[in-house]
Structure formats: C-alpha cells, structure tokens
Design goal:
CATH superfamily of the largest domain: Glycosidases
Shape: globular
CATH topology of the largest domain: TIM Barrel
Strand content: 15-25%
Number of domains: 2
Helix content: 10-25%
Structural class: alpha/beta
CATH architecture of the largest domain: Alpha-Beta Barrel
CATH class of the largest domain: Alpha Beta
Oligomer: single chain
Number of strands: 19
Number of helices: 11
C-alpha cells in the first residue's frame, strides 16, 4: 500500500511503500566528507572581518578576488599576485575560515603597476609570497573568456610549469566564453576552442579545471535556448580530460539581465549545473561591480554594496541545501546527460541531448546496471554518474516552464530494491529511502527549478 510523504517546505512528493521496506539509513554508503567549492565574484569591497563573515554566511566557502574598475590602479587597491590588497585579503580569509581563488590580474594595469616583467618568464615564482597560506589557496583566476591568441599564450609550457611548481594543488582557472559568442574569440566553432583549450591546457595538469558562464536569465533568449548544448559540451570536455567543472551563475539583475530573480530561479540554475557535473559554483555577482555603465540594479547586495537583499538569502538557502548532499554527489563522476521532453508540455530546450546527431533515435544510457527509463510531464534533464566503488547514481532536474505546474516523473530501475533520494527544495540533509514497486518503478513530483540526486540500493 502506497502513501505520500511531503517533506517540510518541500514540493518533492514521493510515492513509496511503508510496509516491509527492509532498508534504513544504515544501508547507505559512508561517503567521504566533501564540499562544493562555492564563491561569489566581486566579493566584498570592504576589507573588514565583518564584511568577510557576511560573505561567508551566504554559504560561500571560497573567496574570489575580483577588481572593481573604478578603484585606483595600485597595489593597495587591486587584486593581483603580489599586491598588497591580495595579501591583506588572504590574511582575513585565513582568519574567518575561507579558502581563496587568487587573481592573476589584467595585463594593462598590472604592467602599469609592476612593469613589463610582471607577465614575463616565470611570474608565479617571481611573486611567490603566499607560502604560509598555501593550504587555503584553491585556485587562481588566470583569464576570463580568452581569444585564440591569449589561449595560446596561456598554454605556454614555461608559464604552466611555473604555476604547477608554486601552486601544485591549485586550479589554473580559465573561464570560457559561452558558445553563442565563440566567433568573437577568433574560433570557427566551440569544438575548435575546446580542442585548443583541452590539448593546450587541460592535458598538462594532473588536476585540470574547466569553467564557463552561461546565464539562464539573460535578456538574450539565444543563450537560454543553447544552455543545455553548451553545458553538455563543457561536461564532455571535462570528462575527456578528467577535469573538475565550475559553472558561473547569475545573481546580477537589470542591464543585460532580467530585473528580478527568485529562490526558485537560483535553484534552477544550481541544479542544472549539477546535472552536468559541476563541483564548483561561482555567482556573478556578490557585490555590484563599480565603474560599469550602466550599472546593475542589484546583485546579492544592494548598490551600496553593504546591505544584503532577498537574493542574498535565497542564494544562502540553495547553497546550504546542496552542501547537505555534496559528499554523495562528489563520490561519483559525471558520465552522460540525456534530455526528456515533457508528455504534457515541451519547450524544446532539451532536444539537443534527447536525440542522436542523426535525429533518428533517442539518446540513452548504455549498458546500465540500474536505470531503465523515465518520463516526465514537463521537460527534464536526467544525468548518469558513475563510481568504481559505489556503482551508478542519477540526477533528475525539472527544466520545464515557470508556470506553476509540477513535473510528475515516472522512473524505472532494475537490480535494486530501493533508492536513496538526496536534494530538492528544503532538503533536510537526511536522504529519503524509497522502496520500488515490483516493476522497479517510483513516481515523484519536481517543482520548477528542483532536482534530486538518486542512488540505487541493492
């Protein structure tokens, strides 16, 4: 006999048997404790402990050094390796318990501050001043959206070997431009850019990293329509080179973006990123970038760059929610994502991963141990994750319209008697263990923006 359980403040509804389940929390694997790396670009302007703690309290565990354009071009006011501001900030991060993404810096004003030699030869050795803080340096932002010429320069073996020598455990972070704008970077296709980046940079690191910014709530509908295709190419590139993946998500409003963002919008962005293997999230932006014209309406702070707004608390809620299942999620590696159009409504945004390239057959997961099939009343992305130790896991993300309807999902599994379900709005941190029916099926609802991470139990 089946009953419905609705978790507090959750829209996720699961149908399951309460009788003779035979499974409990003790049957779950004991995963190694891990966390997502979560940061906000344009971190606090104020160099104070209070400002850094407020940043951390939004659910951030990495401080990302980003410069405001209107600040004076000086070592005291700009982030770059060796600058006085960078050292002051890293000391505060150590004090309040934040890891760090350093900034390599923008060439034109670094040369003005430090001279031409700043970028020549072995810059990381030349400015090796963070020895006592290496344990909190998680990476360095090297370049945002480089063109072909800059990518070639950043692929230089001398530069890369110097970075690996000084920062052996840090990410060499190059954020890639979205596919819709790739022609502006002197490439003929996204495939060509990813091959250049992969062979020139990712292949040279034992711990490579890939990053991209695709903004779902832009006023440019082309970006929204292509985000699944873009994320899928990034995820497959990461898989090929064994790279970790970070997605840069939108918290800026106004200007080129929509004027408002909700908690559900943030959840949609985050769970969609996780569906394509993201182990890191960065938000654009935490504070409102200064020196831009026109300026954004607001980001996670009001334009005074002091006062948290509702978006601050919405992001905090989603960040805390996903960290509660970071350990199981990060125990697996992303393998493949497929699109499933809704039976009652379709937006055609998932079709690019719903069919093979010849459009004659639907994509599927091959030789699965546990997954059989799934359908949803609205569009969704279903992703397969794999682990040599734990087997398979699957993520289901609602990607239907934001019109108040829920996505009723019917999924079928095999070779398992139950599943553990992690995540969803209001997730408490304790996974729900759901017994499958005699055909291996279960039904659940996903509200707009929601996703769940599912692990089969033998």
């Amino acid at each position: 006999m089946f009953k419905k359980i609705v978790a507090l403040s959750m829209s996720l509804v699961l149908t399951f048997s309460l009788c003779a389940c035979g499974y409990s929390q003790k049957d779950l694997p004991q995963y190694e404790e891990k966390k997502f790396d979560i940061a906000g670009l344009w971190a606090p302007r104020q160099m104070t402990e209070e400002a850094f703690i407020q940043y951390k309290n939004a659910g951030f565990n990495v401080f990302s050094f980003t410069n405001h354009d209107e600040q004076p071009r000086s070592s005291e006011n700009q982030y770059y390796i060796g600058s006085k501001r960078s050292l002051e900030a890293i000391k505060l991060c150590k004090k309040v318990g934040l890891d760090v993404y350093l900034a390599y810096g923008d060439s034109w004003f670094n040369r003005a501050n430090e001279g031409d030699e700043y970028f020549e030869g072995t810059p990381f050795s030349n400015h090796n001043v963070y020895g006592e803080y290496m344990d909190i340096i998680k990476g360095m932002h090297i370049k945002d959206e480089p063109n072909r010429e800059t990518m070639t320069y950043l692929s230089d073996d001398t530069l890369i070997n110097d970075f690996k020598k000084i920062y052996p455990n840090a990410k060499y972070i190059i954020n890639l431009i979205p596919e819709t704008a790739v022609l502006s970077r002197d490439y003929t296709s996204y495939t060509e850019m990813l091959e250049h980046f992969g062979e020139g940079i990712l292949s040279k690191f034992p711990n490579p990293h890939i990053s991209v910014d695709c903004y779902l709530y832009s006023n440019n509908s082309t970006v929204e329509g292509n985000i699944i295709n873009n994320y899928n190419q990034i995820a497959n590139c990461a898989k090929k080179y064994g790279a970790t993946t970070a997605m840069i998500l939108q918290t800026a409003t106004g200007n080129e973006f929509m004027d408002t963002l909700t908690e559900a919008d943030m959840r949609q962005q985050v769970y969609l990123a996780l569906a394509f293997g993201a182990s890191g999230i960065e938000y654009y932006c935490y504070s409102v970038p200064q020196g831009m014209d026109p300026q954004y309406k607001h980001c996670m702070l009001e334009r005074d760059n002091v006062t948290p707004n509702q978006l601050y608390y919405d992001v905090k809620t989603v960040n805390e929610e996903i960290q509660k299942f970071a350990s199981p999620y990060l125990a697996y590696k992303w393998n493949k994502a497929i699109g499933i159009s809704g039976t009652e409504d379709q937006t055609f945004r998932v079709c690019v991963i719903e069919y093979e390239s010849d459009l004659s057959t639907k994509t599927s997961f091959k030789d699965t141990e546990n997954y059989v099939s799934s359908t949803g009343t609205l569009d969704m992305v279903v992703s397969q994750f794999v682990s040599e130790k734990y087997g398979e896991a699957y993520m289901f993300v609602n990607f239907g319209r934001n019109d108040g309807r829920v996505n009723t999902v019917n999924a079928q599994f095999k070779n398992c008697g139950a599943v553990a379900i992690y995540g969803g709005a209001g997730y408490s941190g304790t996974p729900r263990i759901v017994k499958l029916d005699k055909e291996g099926k279960l039904t659940f609802d996903l509200n707009y923006g929601e996703g769940v991470f599912v692990t089969p139990l033998k």
